[in-house]
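Tutorial handout. Part one gives the primary structure; part two gives the three-dimensional structure as tokens.
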Amino acid sequence: METELDSALRGAGLRATAGRVAVLEALDSMAHSDAERLYRAVSEVLPTTSIQSVHNILADLTTAGLIRRIEPAGSAALYERRIDDNHHHVVCTSCGAIGDVDCVVGEAPCLTPSWTGGFTVQTAEVTFWGLCPSCQNAAQQQSADRPSSDGVFVAPARMRIRRRRTP
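Part two.
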């Protein structure tokens, strides 16, 4: 019996292999995952899968338009299944948490550049950077717990962009 994922793969001109189906299933529950995290999830179901195989599958699925590859600065490439809309991302500059942000305009390309150099703009990718609620709370707590030598409380050190942690 053909599943929805099998149909999607075949509709995109790809064979519905166990590896491709497993990667798509993993992305259903683990949006914004990198290849290493997906490899760990897929290898639980398909123990003979290699990291290279996962990279190849991700390339095939991206080229076929079944998944989206995003590349926030300071992070490995991340993949997601949300492809049929024009959305953007918000990334925590402290822990690397990432979330989806709906386009404020609602249609591609969402932004109009001041100059295109003759290009026909089809889409715009926007990444918002800031502190997630958890890191905001931690920074506030750290600040409250850290008095200076003269008794004045010191603001937390400037946040730096760090590599995204994977579980």
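Part three, for discussion. The longest helix spans residues 51-63. Residues 152-167 have pLDDT under 50 and may be disordered.
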